[in-house]
Amino acid sequence: MNEVEQLITNSLQELQKIGCEEIPNKEQKSKLIFPKYRNDKQRKRISEQEARFLFVRELEIQKDVDFYYSIETPTKEPYKDFSTEKPAIGKGKSGNVDVTLYEKKDEKYCRKHLIEFKFDNVKTCTKDFLKLLCDDEGCNTNYYINILKNCDSVTIPK
After folding, report:
1. Which of 109, 72, 114, 115 is nearest to 94 (CA)?
2. In the chain, % of residues over pLDDT 90
3. What is the pLDDT of residue 155?
4. Do 43 and 37 meet the contact criterion of CB atoms below 8 Å apart?
5. CATH label of the domain that carries residue 24
6. What is the mean pLDDT of residues 101-126?
7. DSSP letters along the chain, please?
8. Is the residue at 8 inside a domain?
9. Of all residues in the chain, what percent are helix, strand and coil, respectively (each to 5)?
10. What's the domain count of the chain?
11. In 18-92, which ranges are E strands?
């Protein structure tokens, strides 16, 4: 497992430990908690933001990892039809990448890895894969992290 994958693993393990407003978890290391919905006090509100915050937290506390990062990084390429099921590279607007990891080379920061976070949303993954696969030739290993609402042995085989 490379250092980026270890950061992802550590942050997702912490995500599993996160408590919520009414049910704290003493095993968690971070101070992040899930809020409850206003109209449904039984359900905690989960989004991809928690995973992203925990990933950045993990990046900050790991002193032996030498990446720099940016959040909501503008894409290098313009995209069109981003809100449709058939997005494409072309005349349009820049998109954003959730987290971009950089390496420092010759007093300059170079993009190394692009990371997209999602929560239970497969309908918009086409645009995310397009960005991860085509936006920056210098980023040859990128990551798509989709937090599933629930799963079993059929969803994720052992």
Report:
1. 72
2. 47
3. 61
4. yes
5. 3.40.1350
6. 90
7. --HHHHHHHHHHHHHHH--BSSS--TT--SS--BPBPSS-TTSB---HHHHHHHHHHHHHH-TT---EEEEEEEEEEEEESTTSSS-EESSSEEEEEEEEEEEEETTEEEEEEEEEEEES--TTHHHHHHHHHHS-TT--S-EEEEE-S---TTTS--
8. yes
9. 25, 30, 45
10. 1
11. 68-80, 88-89
Burial class (CB in 10 A: 0-12, 13-18, 19+), 127: buried
Q: Which domain holds residue 110?
A: 3-147
The pLDDT-based confidence of 97 (bands split at 50, 70, 90) is very high
pTM: 0.87
Answer whether residue 155 is part of any domain.
Answer: no
Written as one letter, the residue type at 150 is N
3-class SS at 53?
helix
Q: Return the biggest CA–CA distance within the chain.
A: 53
For the segment 65-95, what is each residue's pLDDT rounded down to a tens digit?
A: 999 999 999 999 888 877 777 778 888 888 8
- Give the C-alpha separation, 30 to 116, whole Å: 21
Distance CA 83, CA 94 (A): 13
